[in-house]
Please model this.
Amino acid sequence: MKKQIEQLVMTALQQLAATGVIPQDAVSRPKIERTRDSKHGDFATNAAMVLAKAARTNPRELAQLLLDELPSTDLLEHCEIAAPGFINFTLTSTAYHRLIPSILSLSHRYGRSDLGNGKRVQVEFVSANPTGPLHVGHGRGAAYGSVVADLLKAVGFDVHREYYVNDAGRQMDILATSIWLRYLELCDETLTFPANGYKGDYVWDIAATLHRDHGEAYQQDALSVFEGIEEDEPDGGDKEAHIDGLIERAKQLLGDNRYRFVFELGLNIILDDIRDDLSLFGVNYDEWYSERSLTESGAVNQAIERLRNNNQLYEKAGALWFRSTDFGDEKDRVVVRDNGQTTYFASDIAYHMDKLERGFDRVIDVWGADHHGYIPRVKAALTALGDDTSKLDVLLVQFAILYRGGEKLQMSTRSGQFVTLRELRKEVGADAARFFYVMRKCEQHMDFDLDLAKSQSSDNPVYYVQYAHARICSVFQQAAEQKIPFENDPSAVDYGRLSESHEQALLTSLAKYPETVESSALSEEPHQLTHYLRELANDFHTYYNTHKFLVEDSALRDARLQLILATRQVLRNGLNLLGVSAPEKM
RNA sequence: GCCCUCGUAGCUCAGCAGGAUAGAGCAAUCGCCUCCUAAGCGAUAGGUCACAGGUUCGACUCCUGUCGAGGGCACCA
Model:
């Protein structure tokens, strides 16, 4: 509907430009807004106010000229000029009545568009290190990323979802070593577990698997493992050096093959768990991209060579540095360490280079807010390589701060003290968790009150919206049970019977759906959709409480039933975009 | 110290590229089920949009500064 008004105003503007009232270059897509107050009609535009200066006239006069050029249409009941120069448009009731059969025939396609024109967009999200199960902090990125991807797809983009698997690097070595040490304990070795090791129960589980399947084949004397290793932190040593020493010792005592086996075992078990977890959360990927594959394919070295050829690298203190300060970063960054290992940053350069080379028109990274310092250096690298950084958008998701019993919870994968996404899902359900996560702007710090989310009370708006859907289903259930007939063809119904203000309110909300989806998608703000659905559900509940649908008057009954069928369709479409189910019964 | 994000009702948050009297939900008070699911609806009350300047026809929205909250500033990933 908004689109249609926009077209009309655009035509009028072009007319004005053609007759020289306003300069040709002042013509642009007019801003059409929903009015806040129904006294001002359905839509309003400030076009006359914006263009008054260029036209060397006052806004009200220009508004009148614009109205004179407006093409005739049966959409508009009337148009009027208000206060400082707004033009208010009031739609005809037939414009609204046409909406119902239109929604019902479009069905699940209502709200979708081809705005994106099939442009290829990659959305990378979650990408948590496979060193432990996902926790509730990752949940927000998962819900947000997948909904953004769905929204973009709904408005016509060709979306590719990707998870970047950090399957190389020191953190993974720490995990492998942690598993091995727990395994040694299962072999009845006595040892003090390193302060910096992964202490979660899942490490015991993986160790137990190793022990069950391979007996003592990986056993070593604990004394020989710890002999000569630097002291751990509480004992006056350095915990980082301690764990690094243990990693080296593990590699040395187990040998390449056996070490690799433990490493892979941990990686695969955890990655499977993450995959399973996300899939049960309704989050699926087109691709799981391995960091290690970048090293193995030579892509990392290639990226470094490209930087070297562009004269962006220099050596200092045995390490190879990238001049990121030349491109706005705070300081230069190491790409190859003095021990010859490439850094995580080097992989990331290669990864982003690869993303752009794969031909995406747009690349979206959804990162935790703690990575924000990382953006300038990635963009710096891409600029240095001569790539187009405007194709890259980084969306930062703030952490969810967890509360339980009014108290803040601290989380750390390392210490094993965390609430997993799996636990959250089991306690509050995937529907509530997803809706809850996506209800807030991503850059907004979020308080996630576990007790509240678990309470399953009406505080949680997901139930409110789902309930509206279930209620509509129930009405048709009743109609069937009581054998109440109704017209099945939406275009054969007289919508002139819908004269109640509640019905008009509902129709207006239904008309807003495509605008909401478009706006949510283009601004990457799923919360707009959750707020919309809440309002739509509210319109329905109000209507439900005031008027009966299964009335004696069959023409009125038909009109009302088609209206709530259309409402059900929109509720379904919206919930579906959020990855939340639309139950028929509650 | 520098850099991000945020600061709107008692609490949790909206406010759509600045636009017409600041909006919801919880919580509070008061009403509504012989009637399609009360996981619902209605009503009342509650705000100097952190503070101070600036930009203009007009600022919660843009700019600057101050104060406050969270996060980030590794040869970690």
